Amino acid sequence: MQGRRERRVQATDARQLRTPVRVLTVLEKPVLAEVVRLALSHGPFLVRAVGDEAQAIAMLYDWHPQLAIIDMDVGHVPLLDRLSQAAPATDHIPSIALTRRGDLGTKLTAFEHGVDDILAVPFSPEELLARVLAIMRRSYGTAIAFTPTIRLGELEIDILHRRVRAGPSELHLTSLEQSLLYLLAANAGQLVTREQILDSLWGIDHAAGTNLVDRHVRNLRTKLHDNWRRPRFIATVQGHGYRFLAEGYDETS
Question: What is the pLDDT of residue 38?
């Protein structure tokens, strides 16, 4: 056991963490995958998303990811086993398991299959980013710098202080408002339905059929000084949901 631990430490020390850090996501829902991608745009991360285990295994050998974020609720437990074993060019690929089941049994199962951390869905983008930075530091012995502020079109979003600048105005958001903004902005140009928003921010067990989503979108619009009749940021798709306006949207800025 001691020799195995020493070999793992030596292998970890030998891996020089170079940026951009390659992150593989294996998530069932594209809306969620895009939120992960946008949250990680605060750091030197290059994210590639796949939807099934076969694609993920191919990426292990062809792309050599340095971190994996996996939805363990949709049959990806065998992939967690592969990551915890000897993988191409590494001794261990650190991983975060996402789950909608927060019970102790699920958490113990995840750790038994070698994950480094587990995060319950729904989660906030700042919590995901904090956990990723911590795992990379523990796994590679190197602290990764991150940029608190990113620019999305006319908006500047400070994830650290939950501040948004829209033109000359600086706005303060609640954690839920920030999560809502990230959800819409991450899927810029695409319809995000009320059901998807409810599922992503409150969870599948939350009662549907209320105006909960509309009230929070209205509050966010008020802070952004966004007129729903002539929207600059969030457009209503009548009868369906909302769309973040993609004009001027630049995820890489």
Answer: 97
